[in-house]
Amino acid sequence: MTASPTSLMPPLPEVLGTDPSRCVLDSFRIAIAKRVSDALPPLALEQAYNGVDYGKKGVDFTVALPRFRLPGKVDELAKKVVGQFHADDWVESITHDKAFLHFQVNTKNMIYEVLNQIHDQTHKMPSGKPEYGSNESGRGKRVVIEYSSPNIAKAFHVGHLRSTIIGAFLSNLYKACGWEVTSMNYLGDWGTQFGMIATGFEKYGSREELEKDAIKHLLDVYVKVNRDAEADPDVKVEAAKWFKRMEDGDETALHDWRMWRQLSIRKYEEEYDRLNVKFDVYTGESQVGKESMDIALRKLEEMGLIDEVNGAKLVDLEKYKMGKAVVRKKDGTSIYLTRDIGAAIERYEKYKFDKMIYVVSSQQDLHLSQFFKVLELMGYPWASSLQHVNYGLVQGMSTRKGTVVFLDQIIKEAGQVMHDQMQKNEEKYKAVEDPETTSMEIGITGVKIQDMAAKRINNYTFNWERMLSFEGDTGPYLQYAHVRLASIGRKNPHLLPLPPPSEIDVTTLAESPQAREIAFLLGSYPDIVKTALRTHEPSGVVTYLFRLSHAISSAWETVVVKGEEDITKARARMWMYDTAREVLAAAMRLLSIRPLERM
User: Fold this and answer.
1) Which of 75, 105, 135 is the last residue of a domain?
2) What range defines the domain where residue 531 resides?
3) What is the pLDDT of residues 221-245, one digit of tens each?
4) Which residues are known catalytic residues?
5) Number of other CB atoms surrounding residue 587 within 10 Å
């Protein structure tokens, strides 16, 4: 039998795959499923439970009877369930509508159970951290997520931004679902461009500039040396020689390269920190052993999977509609595919993962399907646990003056626009401790929300006005919603600290349709997390955040705290808003956004 640990509700049978201790709406669904299965034998409780869906507007839960494929007319079946129905502490009412049964749960109990569960999971967990919305579905499993992966000596381009934002979300999401996560940045840190940089560095390099901003300085050197190469073909010959020395393990050539790599990573870490993104491992093309690549090629040849065409080696994947995959160029150098295969084999050896996810743009769809297919043909059983999470392109991303951009310019500019906005309200501006950091956070939130608002696969056009507006469904609006909730406590110090939940009376909340809607939405957050894990779509979480913010916003006028003289009412409302703030913050953190207290 199951009921929440601090709950006074009547016990219910257990249903496999549910966890009322993490999502109290599971209990209400079990209570509904029990009504349906009791009235319609031989329908099993589990089967009935799987048929309980969220209802459309104004309805809590709906059961579509035809899905059970039971003998008899749907109308007759519905009448049986309605005929046996009586209200109790879990379910308030039932309505029959054609092939559907609509259920409303007990308002007062739902509000109390939801708020109480969020309170417990926010303040009383052994970890000391807020855990509402998380679950244990991935316990004991390990996932490696490769994302961001910029090229050293090329600026952190906005194209890498999508991979970074989506990857950080997936990393947080898998952790929230109990998985052990290794987030990995696979840098473009090898290749002939380093020969070019080495050649150019002798002429244009400066240690001082390198220490200041390695990424920018190496890029400047790279641009200048490429200009030289256009006029003088010998430059490329020199560069190729230099890279050959690197490939052959020449220590002097590698010494400089190592320093450039190290300083670039340090600079990247600053950029990532601003974005609230953290990697467990910085690896890169250079870290893939030649041995692994050679073994992979040998294995492909032994298995008769290689065709030789004009000296190049290919794997023929025509019968899978994937064309021909080149695994070695005719000059004998390895290419991306061979390196990716070598890297995957090494990673499996090291991490023994249950799943490995590559967050890479949809332009690489063919490359990734070829790569996964080749590993499968090589007979690696874990090849089936590789997954490509793809995304569309960002169009028109440039600074407002129209130049194409690097990420730090976008962030600085977004922060500046927000800073100007904030200064318009002098009184509030004075109350903000660190306006520069705050305005940058709002700007970053704007960038992230615009990126995650629609399905990943959609291309989107970067829109400055839209992104930084406080009106409509934007990042700044979300931060504002959180700040507004955070200010309630500051404005009503006489209500704090709140008494324990068991001493708060939610009767008056149950009388407000707005409060009911907020509580029900808060209760559905654990399901939002589970759905996101299934779809790998951050947009579902963004949509949820806006639904919740709108529900809260429409309650401000009627469910008032400040000025409410009835202390019982004021406390219950304060508790609800405080709990809503916790959930809003949890969903924002899942999206790698830092919720602000003031702005």
Assistant:
1) 105
2) 407-591
3) 999 999 999 999 999 999 999 998 9
4) 154, 157, 160
5) 23
